[in-house]
Write a structure and sequence with these properties.
The complex is a heterodimer.
Chain A: H1 2-16, E1 19-28, E2 32-40, E3 45-47, E4 50-59, H2 68-77, E5 85-94, E6 97-104, E7 107-119, E8 122-130, E9 140-141, E10 144-157
Antiparallel strand pairs in A: 1-2, 1-10, 3-4, 4-5, 5-6, 6-7, 7-8, 8-10, 9-10
Chain B: H1 2-16, H2 52-62, H3 74-79, E1 93-106, E2 114-130, E3 136-144, E4 163-172, E5 178-185, H4 199-202, E6 212-220, E7 224-233, E8 244-254, E9 258-268, E10 272-286, E11 289-302, E12 309-323, E13 326-337, E14 343-353, E15 359-371, E16 380-390
Antiparallel strand pairs in B: 1-2, 1-16, 2-3, 3-4, 4-5, 5-6, 6-7, 7-8, 8-9, 9-10, 10-11, 11-12, 12-13, 13-14, 14-15, 15-16
Classes of the chains: A alpha+beta, B mainly beta.
């Protein structure tokens, strides 16, 4: 019985923080792809109209683009073997705007973002970053490159 | 005399379009995030040989890996997508062989069912790439082109060359935004579907033998893509038959994986003037799943008679990626002749299976219904089984 309760509690806990993230990457000269994960971890606290989070993170290998080979390239590009997590720390948000520290490949960058409430318990945050901000090298596979501007969209349970 | 000649020419042009090959663009791949043809094709509007990235994408994302060893790395499958299963040995030349054949059963299931096998296409293409970022490009495709079914066993068939080039051009692309191409190419109008017998291609006469010598200017940004095409007709045709004019197609990106577009084309020869307009939408819904809708209007005015003709068409396609290597396609098409108020509706499902890199198998089941005030024609089912190979 204790095991069942523990499993149910665990399941409820997981549901409580079912954050999702989509990394939108533009290709050069044309096209785009998205790397997605619904396994973003971390707790967001709500205090009136303010939101805070100490640490939100996702395993780099859990970002999937829909094509196995592209996943391999994407994870290699982000050096997932050396830096298995992408983290977003010291997050503070209110009135549709927020700030936080994004860490990719051990490079930290303070970023700002905007958000909208999609429901009383979900917010959608959008962060615009550049690959070059995190010292990620330019990529080109068989003539098709990756543009510097990247958009990160996160659906956060609050 | 001229009136009858112009009518015959118009009829032949129309008749030639059915059950003939060519067209290799997959605009439905906007569902994979590829909203522009230039990502995978050398020709920025599709058709013709695919580039290295297009080959790799086809091998590792479109094609199944069911016939590969489980341990075979995707990177190796990608590398084997090159010509003759090898990585390109030099940076300047890209050859490609392509074959399409089709088993066609017309009036499928009826007493008068007929069965034919058609070698639709057997082409050798060669692309030359030079300069920084391959800004200079030369392409030629030469191969077998069957006598259109409507002309087989007729005196005209003897004058038709069954080996010829359908595309050759020189291109200059100084940057990723602009490109200019000159030579024999398809005209830039509407959505360049792989189904060249769709009403959206046959009505404005943009099928497998309707390429024209001319110049194409291509403009491409993430939010806007357009092409202007001035052409003088296919120079291998008799001068009086060459359709001269201009065409343009323009697409605007809405909400990332959706594009709305407008097209216009005005052309004419010694016998007929033609003006066409079209609007279309392409939407990528999910990974590999998409919808396409196009509606168009075509006016054909013979120069030697007052028998002008206005036609309308529309097409809706929904492509669904069932799993890697398998795509379902549902199509609904409509065609109307405003002169006699007759119209046709064609619909049907199809399934494409890419068992491994460089092989596509496809089966279509089409139902065609003709509606006319003057005659009654029974519905017709056609079964089309196609094989497409490329090296």
């Amino acid at each position: 019985m204790k095991i069942i309760i523990a499993v149910m509690a665990s399941a409820l806990m997981m549901n409580a923080y079912a954050h999702e993230v989509t990394v939108k990457v533009a290709l050069s000269p044309a096209g785009s792809f998205e790397a997605k994960s619904d396994k973003v971890k971390g707790e967001v606290k709500k205090d009136g109209a303010k939101f805070t989070a100490e640490n939100l993170w996702v395993k780099t290998d859990e970002l999937k683009t829909g094509i196995d080979l592209r996943d391999e390239h994407f994870h290699k590009h982000l050096a997932s073997d050396k830096f298995p997590k992408i983290t977003f720390t010291k997050v503070m948000a209110a009135d549709g705007k927020g700030t936080g520290t994004l860490t990719v490949d051990d490079v930290k960058k303070d970023v700002s973002f905007t958000y909208t409430m999609k429901s009383p318990t979900k917010l959608e945050a959008t962060i615009n970053v550049k690959n070059s901000d995190f010292k990620l090298k330019e990529e080109n596979y068989m003539g098709i490159g990756v543009k510097d501007d990247v958009v990160i969209v996160a659906i956060i349970d609050v | 005399m001229f009136k009858s000649k112009s009518l015959i020419i118009m009829s032949l042009i129309g008749a030639c379009q059915f059950f003939s090959p060519k067209a290799e663009a997959y605009p439905n791949f906007i569902g994979h995030g590829y909203n522009s043809c230039i990502t995978c094709h050398y020709n920025p509007f599709g058709n013709g040989p695919i580039n290295d990235y297009g080959r790799a994408f086809s091998a590792t994302a479109v094609s199944s890996r069911g016939f590969y060893d489980d341990n075979k790395p995707e990177e190796l499958i990608s590398q084997e997508s090159g010509f003759l299963f090898k990585q390109p040995e030099n940076k300047h030349f890209r050859p490609q062989l392509s074959y399409r054949g089709m088993l066609l059963k017309q009036n499928f299931g009826e007493v008068k069912e007929t069965t034919d096998y058609i070698h639709m296409q057997a082409d050798l293409s060669l692309v030359g790439l030079f300069g920084e970022n391959d800004k200079y490009i030369a392409e030629v495709t030469f191969g077998y082109a069957p006598v259109p079914r409507a002309l087989q066993n007729t005196p005209q068939a003897d004058s038709i060359k069954t080996y010829r080039t359908r595309e050759h051009y020189l291109g200059y692309r100084p940057n990723q935004t602009w490109g200019i191409y000159a030579g024999l190419m398809d005209k830039t109008f509407g959505v360049r579907l792989v189904e060249h017998t769709s009403y959206s291609r046959t009505t404005p006469q943009l099928t497998m033998d309707d390429q024209s010598h001319g110049v194409v200017i291509h403009y491409n940004t993430p939010s806007f893509e357009g092409g202007l095409n001035a052409f003088v007709g296919n120079l291998t045709q008799d001068v009086d038959l060459r359709m001269k004019g201009f065409a343009g197609t323009f697409e605007y990106t809405l909400l990332e994986k959706n594009r709305v577009g407008l097209s216009v084309m005005k052309e004419g020869n010694d016998y007929v003037d033609q003006t066409a307009y079209a609007a279309h939408i392409r939407s990528g819904l999910d990974h590999g799943t998409s919808i396409i809708f196009e509606v168009g209007r075509v006016e054909k005015t013979p120069k030697t008679s007052s028998l002008s003709k206005t036609e309308y068409y529309s097409i809706f396609q929904n492509e669904i990626r069932a799993t890697r290597g398998v795509y379902f396609l549902n199509s609904i098409e409509y065609y109307k002749n405003a002169v006699d108020k007759s119209y046709r509706v064609r619909f049907g499902p199809s399934v494409s299976y890419f068992p491994r890199s460089k092989i596509e198998l496809r089966v279509d089941l089409n139902n065609t219904r003709n509606f006319s005030q003057e005659s009654s024609v029974k519905d017709r089912w056609d079964l089309l089984a196609q094989i497409h190979l490329w090296l």
